């Protein structure tokens, strides 16, 4: 019998995912789906090996190089894949290299040609859905006896495949979408993923593929993806059961690759299946899913079936400004309904969550602050703030769209996506590059920078209801929490304490020095001796969440001092500068501080005296007039860490490789499993 044709598929992940402290590494779903589909078609004539880990990929490739290697083209791994492609082609120039994935220009042939010409070692690029297109391409390669040159010279059009020859582009039409019925094989059920059940890889499944929305910054908004194709519920149940039985580590998060979970009627049963799996196997304890943007009633009733706290509802509003929503084609998504749903989700989860993007077309300082205010005033407990990234394949990347909104961009290293690699004795650094919008027709660069610093203040003074005491107090006085954040931000900018200055300076350094004006400058920097090592030490500056973690764990005294000053100024401005309220503010701030100061010093306890009944106030979520809880005599309180909290914090912290990542990891756990205030000190009257 003829030996099968060996094909390697690599969806490589950078070393922060695969290295000594692997985290967030999901099963390679995309290549798994294509490989299992192709296996169904070519049966024993072809064998596939799938890779995520570059180290394993190098070793297996060098042991016995296959004639064909396919790489996923995702923006967080393109440069890594291409670095391997360069080295493979140097050693084995006959290897046929195929790239496939969403990180490829859409509609503009000149850009597609540019892309392929700047990656000349790629023989073919599969566009659109990979399953059928790859099979067609493979048939043609076999038909031409692996003679790529001849195939290209004949300018054979292959469905869903692009290539260049002699400086011109040959582009086959995208393949029709597959039905995803029960005849479409599953990479789990066919055993193709069995080797990934190591206890590190996190399972990812996809019930529905496609998205009916048209958000201009997203690659999935292309018309091609507008129809939604689902697998059957039976198939989903079988997949989850298969996974749960084999997963050696039941702490691993489960991911859904769907764009709008729970939005459609038929999705309600999906969560019922997940809930049954949770009951049967005690897994998944945490689910990562992008929930539906419309039909929140359906989404919520679907989510309500899950184990409490296992999935956090996120209102991905992106902006509350009507003009921005129109520009990005999200007018058909109701911001109000999304926020309402996020709040109602509190019944099923701890905390509520919203996502916004800074710099969208039409965005401005005013629109950004308005968006944050809308979320904070609604009572959402966490605002996640992102900068606007430009992706190939999104309308945002189209030249006419860029020009219409006068988008100006800079380039940066993608967080976590860099490292040092080795192939056949050759060691080389690689970092992925992202393009970020920093200016537009409605937003100056200075306003962009202002909003970034303001967003850090939202992280430090607001997120996760860090100041729940303040929130309740202001609520009882009819003052917006947003006014408090803004005041804290202004005071911080005016007179920054040394410790807080370090984290705001970090953001400043990141914004000014680690966003390059041209991609070539950044490429030169990455290649420079030792630059990436130096960058690695300050990588955390890229992330508001990391800076916030440092702030909360290390600068509590400064944060509380600014909060106190802000509150007292607000009382003056609102003309309620009453002596008793001022006393309450001082005591409330001290009370809050002892619960949150030096959190990692878990053995440290504090004692303090107050003239207010904080036990009663806490029971009411501080949402009452504090003067009603004034005490006649001062009462002494003690603050300490519960044993189980202390142990959990130290365990989480020790799981990570660096101080900053350890701190961020604890905060990350407050995303769903535990609310942030779980880690604060307990208190009681003594
Ligand atoms: S951002 Fe989300 S809702 Fe919008 S097109 Fe992309 S996947 Fe769909």
Quick synopsis:
This protein has 686 residues and is of the alpha/beta class. Helix content is 43%, strand content 17%. It has 4 domains: 167 residues, Cobalamin-binding domain (Rossmann fold), CATH 3.40.50.280; 108 residues, Transcription Regulator spoIIAA; 209 residues, Transcription Regulator spoIIAA (2-Layer Sandwich); 107 residues, no CATH class.
Mean model confidence by pLDDT: 91
Question: Which strands sit side by side, in order, in the main sheet?
Answer: 2-1-3-4-5-6-7
Number of DSSP-assigned strands: 21
Number of domains: 4
Shape: globular
- C-alpha Rg (nearest Å): 27 Å
Determine the strand fraction and express it as a percent band.
15-25%
The DSSP helix count reads 26
Q: Mind describing the biggest β-sheet?
A: 7 strands, mixed
The CATH topology of the largest domain, please? Transcription Regulator spoIIAA
Textual characterization of the structure:
The chain is 43% helix and 17% strand. The protein has 686 residues and is α/β, with parallel strands linked by helices. It folds into four domains: 5-171, Cobalamin-binding domain (Rossmann fold, 3-Layer(aba) Sandwich); 203-310, 2-Layer Sandwich (Transcription Regulator spoIIAA), CATH 3.30.750; 312-461 and 496-554, Transcription Regulator spoIIAA (2-Layer Sandwich); 579-685, no CATH class. The longest helix has 18 residues, at 556-573. The radius of gyration is 27 Å and the shape is globular. The termini are far apart. The mean pLDDT is 91. Residues 211, 213, 215, 218, 220-221, 259, 293 line the site of iron/sulfur cluster (SF4).
């Amino acid at each position: 019998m003829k030996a099968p044709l060996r094909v390697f598929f690599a969806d490589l992940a950078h070393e922060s995912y695969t290295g000594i402290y692997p985290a967030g590494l999901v099963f390679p779903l995309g290549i798994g789906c294509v490989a299992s589909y192709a296996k169904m078609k070519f049966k024993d004539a072809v064998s596939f090996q799938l890779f995520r880990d570059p180290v394993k990929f190098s070793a297996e490739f060098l042991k016995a190089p296959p004639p064909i290697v396919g790489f996923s083209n995702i923006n967080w791994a393109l440069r890594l894949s291409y670095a391997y492609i360069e080295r493979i082609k140097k050693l084995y120039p006959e290897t046929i290299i195929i790239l496939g994935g969403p990180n490829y220009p859409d509609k503009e042939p000149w850009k597609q040609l540019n892309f392929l010409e700047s990656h000349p070692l790629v023989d073919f690029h599969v566009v659109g859905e990979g399953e059928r297109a790859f099979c067609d391409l493979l048939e043609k390669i076999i038909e031409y006896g692996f003679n790529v040159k001849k195939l290209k010279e004949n300018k054979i059009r292959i469905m869903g495949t692009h290539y260049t020859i002699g400086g011109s582009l040959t582009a086959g039409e995208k393949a029709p979408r597959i039905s995803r019925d029960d005849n479409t094989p599953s990479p789990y059920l066919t055993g193709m993923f069995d080797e990934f059940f190591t206890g590190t890889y996190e399972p990812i499944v996809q019930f529905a593929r496609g998205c009916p929305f048209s958000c201009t910054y997203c690659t999935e908004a292309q018309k091609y993806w507008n129809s939604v194709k689902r697998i059957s519920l039976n198939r989903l149940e079988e997949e989850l059961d298969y996974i749960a039985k084999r997963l050696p580590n039941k702490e691993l998060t489960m991911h859904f690759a769907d764009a709008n979970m729970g939005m459609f009627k038929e999705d309600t049963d999906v969560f019922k299946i997940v809930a049954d799996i949770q009951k049967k196997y005690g897994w998944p304890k945490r689910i990562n899913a992008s929930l539906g943007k419309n039909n929140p009633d359906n989404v919520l009733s679907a989510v309500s079936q899950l184990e409490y706290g296992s999935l956090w509802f996120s209102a991905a509003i992106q902006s509350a400004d009507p003009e921005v929503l129109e520009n990005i084609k999200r007018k058909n998504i109701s911001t109000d309904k999304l926020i309402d749903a996020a709040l109602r989700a509190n019944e099923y989860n701890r905390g509520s969550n919203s996502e916004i993007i800074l710099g969208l077309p039409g965005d401005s300082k005013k629109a950004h602050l308005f968006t944050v205010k809308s979320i904070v005033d609604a009572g959402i407990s966490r605002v996640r703030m992102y900068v606007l990234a430009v992706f190939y394949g999104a309308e945002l990347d189209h030249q006419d769209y860029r020009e219409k909104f006068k988008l100006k961009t800079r380039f940066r290293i993608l967080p976590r996506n860099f490292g040092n690699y080795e192939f056949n004795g050759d060691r080389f650094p690689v970092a992925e590059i992202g393009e970020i919008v920093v200016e537009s027709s409605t937003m100056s660069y200075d306003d962009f920078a202002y909003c970034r610093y303001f967003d850090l203040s939202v992280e430090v003074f607001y997120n996760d209801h860090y100041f729940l005491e303040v929130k309740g107090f202001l609520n009882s006085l009819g003052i917006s929490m947003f006014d408090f954040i803004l005041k804290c931000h202004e005071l911080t900018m005016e007179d920054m304490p040394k410790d807080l200055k370090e984290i705001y300076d970090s953001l400043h350094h990141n914004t000014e020095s680690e966003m390059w004006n041209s991609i070539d400058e950044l490429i030169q920097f990455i290649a420079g001796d030792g630059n990436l090592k130096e960058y690695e030490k300050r990588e955390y500056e890229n992330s508001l969440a990391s800076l916030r973690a440092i702030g909360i764990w290390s600068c509590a005294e400064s944060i509380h001092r600014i909060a106190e000053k802000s509150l007292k100024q607000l009382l003056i401005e609102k003309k309620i500068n009453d002596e008793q309220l001022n006393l309450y503010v001082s005591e409330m701030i001290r009370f809050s501080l002892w619960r949150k100061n030096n959190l990692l010093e878990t053995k440290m306890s504090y004692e303090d005296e107050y003239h207010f009944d904080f036990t009663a106030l806490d029971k009411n979520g501080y949402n009452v007039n504090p003067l009603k809880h004034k005490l006649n005599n001062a009462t002494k309180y003690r603050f300490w860490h519960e044993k189980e909290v202390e142990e959990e914090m130290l365990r989480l912290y020790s799981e990570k490789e660096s101080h900053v990542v350890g701190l961020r990891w604890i905060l990350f756990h407050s995303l769903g499993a535990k609310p942030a205030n779980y880690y604060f000190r307990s208190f009681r009257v003594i």
